[in-house]
Amino acid sequence: MARPRLLWQYELEIIDRTMRAISGISDPEEIVDAYWTGISDLVSIVDFVAVSRRHTEPPEYHITRSSRFTEHVNPWTQRDQLPRLSGGILGEILDRGRPSVIDNLPELLAENDPARFYLEGFQSLVALPQYDGGEALNITMMLLPPGEEIDHAIIPMMHWQNSLFGRGTQNLVLRNQLSGLLSALDRELQVVGAIQRSLLPSELPSISGFKLAAHYETSARAGGDYYDFFPLSDGRWGIFIGDVSGHGTPAAVLMAITHAIAHAQPGTHTPPAALLTYLNHQLSTAYTREGTFVTAFYAVLDPVRRTLTYSRAGHNPPRLARGAEVIPLNGIGSLPLGIQDGQTYEETTLELAPGDLVLLFTDGIVEATAPETGPLGGAQLGTGRLDEVLLASHGCEPEDCLKSIRQALAEFTQNAPPVDDQTLIAMRCC
Description:
By secondary structure, this protein is α+β, with helices and mostly antiparallel strands. It folds into two domains: 131 residues, Beta-Lactamase (2-Layer Sandwich), CATH 3.30.450.40; 241 residues, Phosphatase 2c, domain 1. Helices cover 35% and strands 24% of the residues. It is built from eleven helices and 16 strands. It is elongated.
């Protein structure tokens, strides 16, 4: 003969089944329905009323649930359809803001009580609040008709369970609201990113005697890296690369401002130091705040003379791959743009030879890190490893060179998403 189950085993089975059911629900109203349906075999609640002062100024309140509702109203999405009352017994219970047990409800229920419809005909009421920031914004009440009693000994446990369930439901509401806000924000960031990318060159210029390739990748929806090409007189070209401090939307906004300033005034694109001086003045006097700045490298390429005249504002020195060596173009350099108005910028000229390859890049390349748990223990790629890739790519087309660098980055970081924007420009003299 099978041994009958103990009461605690029976109750545990009901609770476990209910908790499992609600664990996969994300809609708060569905969770409430599933919860009370699931535990109805433990606590039989036939008649009830729930009130809320959330988003309502005292003394008013909403009736959010009632066994006497003739139509179901979702209190989360249809709050404007809920009864809105003021005062009476339910208002007093809300004002009290703590558990309440009333065993003589008919004696206290006045003829003009605004909630009489929901309370009439019941003898007892057990009110259990759900706190938010220490305030009883929601209270659920069990209603008992004459002749029915509740074991007062279980009320503390019911209050405990009701409060935890209410807190969990509210957290779910907040999570859903946050998820919605994040989705809306992400859509906005996608638009910002699309606008930002539209400011970059749609295609690379065709420069006689030179081949170009570029790669651009942001660490977020939008980024602060910027590169550009400016057609100049006598077949010359201005080549610009910059990196706004920070990441994401703020960096993208300052990047767009830098782009606008760089295109606003013709005649400032040569000599190179003149453009950096102009940008620095505009940024430092009107746009950069609280330590923001822009690193930049700007060069004027003369394809006829095969010269590159450049100036640098705190940016990573480009690399010149020439034969069996890599030479950093670090002979000159000044503060980044936007730090100090009046900053002077020097310039110098490099003579290029057939086969030379010049690589411009932002610090997201050399500061890419290996995994902390790997053999390199979070080390950065650095210029040394970058130079090794350049030497191994000797004689390759610029596009193939950039592919080799990207492959090396992927292997070094074990395909981790970039934590900083990454921009590469390769230019080979033919």
